[in-house]
Amino acid sequence: MPTRLTLDDHLTALRHSGKALREAAAAAGLEAKVPTCPSWTVSALVSHQGMVHRWAAANLRRERDHDADASLAAAAETPDLLEWYSAGLDALLETIAATPDDAEAFVFLNDAPPPRRFWPRRQAHETTIHAVDGVAATLGRWPTAADVAIDPALAVDGIDELLTGFLPRGKSKLSAPEPYTLVVRAEDTGDAWTMRVGDEAIVTTVGDSDTADVVFSGSAVQLYLGLWNRGDEFATTGRPDLVTEWRAQIRIRW
Predict the structure, then answer these.
(1) Running DSSP on this structure, what letter comes out for residue 234?
(2) pLDDT tens, 231-240?
(3) CATH number of 154-249
(4) Mean pLDDT (the chain, rounded)
(5) How confident is the model at residue 172 (pLDDT cuts 50, 70, 90)?
(6) pLDDT for residue 199
């Protein structure tokens, strides 16, 4: 479904989560482990997000020669990683503000909106999920929905981006020799999605189904965390083994 959030909604979420990530990183310490991304320290988390902010801004500016590895190298060399991170976030917000509504630029999801709408939405969720990683580092465990300050409307938007934008691209590793139908149901907002999973590209439709083989249900925030592999509070009806399959097969790089 087209996003129900406005550009200002996504920019507000990006600012909020950007600040939350910095604060969590400062509280946890740069050498702390990140339970939700076991191979990372907080330093790696902040460096990654700062690199992605710069990459997103470069795409909006149509800088085809942008070098993401150079950003990571700069992160490794900076005397103040958190200030470097904040400078990248500020530059991204400034770039979005300066980008015309009809600007042409690279986007990469199915049925993506125009670039000036696509990139704030993508970075709002990218940064929100990584802010959750920062919270996990401060807690020393996977967070619950109660541990994070995420608006249910933003959570619904992020679930929709994942299920209708990322997974149907044909690059998802979620597949099954025997096709099945998976329903994702946000009980507090009334939103639902139906996915057909088999040995070809996933097909996602917006809406519920009475013939699902498995249902993932919970609050919008519980599902947002769980489907992005940052929490495990949602309920499963039908085939609990498919939660394990989801954890093993769904990996989003950006």
Answers:
(1) S
(2) 989 999 998 8
(3) 3.30.1050.10
(4) 94
(5) low
(6) 87
Task: Let me know how long the chain is.
Answer: 254
Helix axes of 115-139 and 42-60: crossing angle, nearest 10 degrees: 170
- 3-class secondary structure, 217: strand
Q: Check: CB of residue 50 under 8 Å from CB of residue 71.
A: yes
Q: What are 218's strand-pairing partners?
A: 186
Among left, alpha and beta (phi > 0; psi -120 to 50; other), residue 179 is: beta
CA distance 68 to 52: 8
3-state secondary structure of 66: coil
Q: What is the pTM of this model?
A: 0.95
DSSP β-ladder status, 214-218 and 180-186: parallel
Between CA 104 and CA 4 the distance in angstroms is 22
* Boundaries of every domain in the chain: 7-143, 154-249
pLDDT band at 200 (very low <50, low <70, confident <90, very high): confident
Contact by Cβ (8 Å): 177, 199: yes
Domain 7-143 maps to which CATH number in 1.10.530, 1.10.4030, 2.60.120, 1.20.120?
A: 1.20.120
- Nearest to 182, CA basis, from 190, 171, 174: 174
- Return the sign of the alpha-carbon dihedral for residues 181, 153, 140, 23: positive
Average pLDDT in the 15-21 region?
98
